[in-house]
């Protein structure tokens, strides 16, 4: 059971006011808030052992290196990853995806096919389009239905021995749909294709098991799991990471450099050129520790309760329509009110201290599918409450009355 009073005390930002009203933060799918425990880790890093890693023989450098490598192991354990060098520290999901998209060109020829899902975030569409332009590979799309679910029968038909790579998010940031990644991965492997799952939106809600999923690549952003921005991970199976060419050249990623030839460092350093976000990596692990102490099972149960409560309440509002009605979704509600622009609703909610997202949520193709300019998106976290949902529902009603 979630002790909500205790949890809310961990998040200093939840005490602030916005426009003279208590903050109601429902933009968790864009970024999560940070508990004091993680803020303390960040302050401690800069207050007591800030130094560059893997280089110095001096004490601070050793300490920072130890903490950073310990963080890698925390992340490894959390995602049940077989080997710690299969965890590559990155600046986040976008960076992780680009790393794979850039290197994967080495395995593609003209006419090969890449499959992406219709539910993708822009950061999961553009790099593949760029890769296709560069290699002559062809992009195919798994379509979605009105509930906001992928049409898996069509996906199976798209797969062939031409398919080299499949990309899909684990959870859609725009609609909250949890995609059947187990099936997607299994089917892709039958034709010998590799699979990258974008776990940015799943990580705050689902503890994904890399070995059980048997996925080839998986990406996470720390800032969506109560960690800092500018940190994240790329998980890659060892066999793939060994084959994949490095993304950036620089310090830390080389074994030996002469002007004739450079040999690359071992994993994970081959993909970690330059000075990384040391503090960010350490705080990322601290954030996972924080969430694990609460427990992902309890988090899921509580968020499910919030989702059901909010869905029921919102649907009592005249003309309100929810997009994304899969039975398997996380605590995200994308909605519109007939005749009103989502931006206008969002602006009125902001005046009431309620933070929601409005627009296309970096997923324009989904909005085109529904033939709408965007939605209002409320996304909940384990530190939100039913009382806050009541405040939002009252705010949406007020917006409707003002704008109609
Ligand atoms: C947030 C998000 C991204 C982008 O993550 P960054 O941290 O901005 O790199 C990609 N995919 C999904 C599903 C997301 O929710």
From TrEMBL:
Annotated Aminotransferase class V domain residues: 24-391
Record flagged with keyword Lyase: yes
EC numbers for this chain: 2.8.1.7
InterPro entries per record: Aminotrans_V_dom, Aminotrans_V_PyrdxlP_BS, Cys_dSase_SufS, PyrdxlP-dep_Trfase, PyrdxlP-dep_Trfase_major, PyrdxlP-dep_Trfase_small
Annotated keywords: Lyase, Pyridoxal phosphate, Transferase
The reaction(s) this protein catalyses: (sulfur carrier)-H + L-cysteine = (sulfur carrier)-SH + L-alanine
Gene Ontology BP terms: cysteine metabolic process
Top EC category: transferase
GO MF, any single term: pyridoxal phosphate binding
Pfam family, one: Aminotran_5
Keyword Secreted attributed: no
Family matches, as SUPFAM superfamilies: PLP-dependent transferases
Cofactor: pyridoxal 5'-phosphate
Protein function: Catalyzes the removal of elemental sulfur and selenium atoms from L-cysteine, L-cystine, L-selenocysteine, and L-selenocystine to produce L-alanine.
Family per record: Belongs to the class-V pyridoxal-phosphate-dependent aminotransferase family. Csd subfamily.
PANTHER family for this protein: CYSTEINE DESULFURASE (PTHR43586), CYSTEINE DESULFURASE 1, CHLOROPLASTIC (PTHR43586:SF8)
Protein's name according to its UniProt entry: Cysteine desulfurase
Native source species: Maribacter vaceletii
Lineage of producing organism: Bacteria, Pseudomonadati, Bacteroidota, Flavobacteriia, Flavobacteriales
């Amino acid at each position: 059971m979630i002790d909500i009073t205790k949890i809310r005390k961990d998040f200093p930002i939840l005490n602030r006011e916005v426009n003279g009203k208590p903050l109601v933060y429902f933009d968790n799918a864009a970024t999560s808030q940070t508990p004091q425990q993680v803020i303390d880790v960040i302050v401690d890093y800069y207050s007591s052992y800030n130094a560059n890693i893997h280089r110095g023989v001096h004490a601070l450098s050793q300490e920072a290196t130890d903490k950073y490598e310990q963080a890698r192991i925390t992340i490894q354990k959390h995602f049940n990853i077989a080997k710690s060098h299969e965890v590559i520290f990155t600046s986040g999901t976008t960076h992780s995806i680009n790393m794979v998209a850039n290197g994967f060109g080495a395995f593609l020829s003209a006419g090969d096919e890449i499959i992406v899902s219709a539910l993708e975030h822009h950061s999961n569409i553009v790099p593949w389009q760029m890769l296709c332009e560069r290699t002559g590979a062809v992009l195919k799309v798994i379509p979605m239905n009105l509930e906001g679910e992928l049409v898996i029968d069509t996906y199976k038909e798209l797969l062939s021995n031409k398919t080299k790579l499949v990309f899909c998010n684990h959870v859609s940031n725009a609609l909250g749909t949890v995609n059947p990644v187990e099936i997607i991965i299994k089917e892709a492997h039958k034709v010998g294709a590799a699979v990258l799952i974008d776990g940015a939106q799943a990580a705050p809600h689902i503890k994904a098991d890399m070995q059980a999923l048997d996925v080839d690549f998986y990406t996470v952003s720390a800032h969506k799991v109560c960690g800092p921005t500018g940190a994240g991970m790329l998980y890659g199976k060892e066999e793939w990471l060994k084959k994949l060419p490095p993304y950036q050249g620089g310090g830390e990623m080389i074994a030996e450099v002469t002007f004739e030839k450079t040999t690359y460092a071992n994993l994970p350093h081959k993909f970690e050129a330059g000075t990384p976000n040391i503090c960010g990596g350490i705080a990322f692990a601290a954030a996972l520790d924080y969430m694990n102490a609460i427990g992902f099972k309890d988090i899921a149960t509580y968020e499910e309760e919030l989702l059901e409560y909010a869905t029921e309440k919102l649907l009592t509002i005249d003309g309100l329509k929810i997009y994304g009605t899969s039975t398997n979704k996380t605590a995200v509600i994308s909605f519109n009110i007939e005749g009103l622009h989502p931006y206008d609703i969002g602006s009125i909610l902001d005046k009431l201290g309620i933070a929601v997202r409005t627009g296309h949520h970096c997923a324009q193709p989904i909005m085109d599918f529904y033939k709408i300019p965007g939605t209002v998106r409320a996304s909940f976290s384990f530190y939100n409450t039913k009382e806050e949902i009541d405040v939002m529902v009252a705010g949406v009603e007020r917006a409707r009355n003002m704008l109609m």
